[in-house]
């Protein structure tokens, strides 16, 4: 088996989170047929009413099927239980055994793209509070200034129902893996934020990984597999 090739180095602190034309004659536009989502995935991403706050069903018509949660081949030297975040491919892998992994679709932002290397999940939170960074409050005080003491958990909280907090050598990286209600952002690089998963996916991932879990974040031309 060839040696694993990737760049893993100490992270630097994240820098922060048509014209119209008329005509007398025209051809009706052809709309693509709506995507048919298999019942298996509809059930996987159904609404969750047994949470502290209701979690709405994901709108999977806004998410490409490759970003639905699924088990895939993933040969790697990383031990089982490791989380590998491939920001370029927009995938998060929970490494399993026998060359397999559970793959989740992710959305990334400037905060997520500012981190590369290894870290540990220092702690986990269900329905966490969210506090904007000092940079965000300075840049846009009207929008964020009143949130200096944090935002209460709930359906509108940007962190969603779960969050994983990453530290390196005991220092908070300000890097989070969390949920989102913006289903359309999965598979994309959005304007701000860390690593976001569909709410059903972060609930699932949260249940599978303990505090102390090793997390490897790959950027650019990093290669996560052997």
List keywords for this structure.
single chain, glycosyltransferase activity, 4 helices, L,D-transpeptidase catalytic domain-like, alpha+beta, glycosyltransferase, 226 residues, globular, disordered N terminus, hydrolase, cell shape, 10 strands, transferase
List the helices and strands and how they pair.
Elements: H1 39-44, E1 70-73, E2 83-86, E3 91-95, E4 100-105, E5 107-108, E6 117-126, H2 134-139, H3 141-144, E7 162-168, E8 171-180, E9 195-198, H4 199-208, E10 214-218
Parallel strand pairs: 2-10, 8-9
Antiparallel strand pairs: 1-4, 2-3, 3-4, 5-9, 6-7, 6-10, 7-8
Overview of this protein structure:
It contains four helices and ten strands, in the order αββββββααβββαβ. The protein has 226 residues and is an alpha+beta fold. It has one domain: L,D-transpeptidase catalytic domain-like (Beta Barrel). The chain has a ten-stranded mixed β-sheet with strand order 1-4-3-2-10-6-7-8-9-5. A hairpin with a 2-residue loop joins strand 7 and strand 8. Mean pLDDT is 83; it is low at 1-27.
The named CATH superfamily: L,D-transpeptidase catalytic domain-like
Strand sequence of the main sheet, in spatial order?
1-4-3-2-10-6-7-8-9-5
CATH class category: Mainly Beta
CATH fold description: L,D-transpeptidase catalytic domain-like
The SSE string, one letter per element, is HEEEEEEHHEEEHE
Count of individual beta strands: 10
The oligomeric status of these chains comes to single chain
| Fraction of residues in helix | 10-25%
Radius of gyration of CA atoms, rounded to a whole number: 19 Å
Counted up, domains total 1
Poorly predicted ranges? 1-27
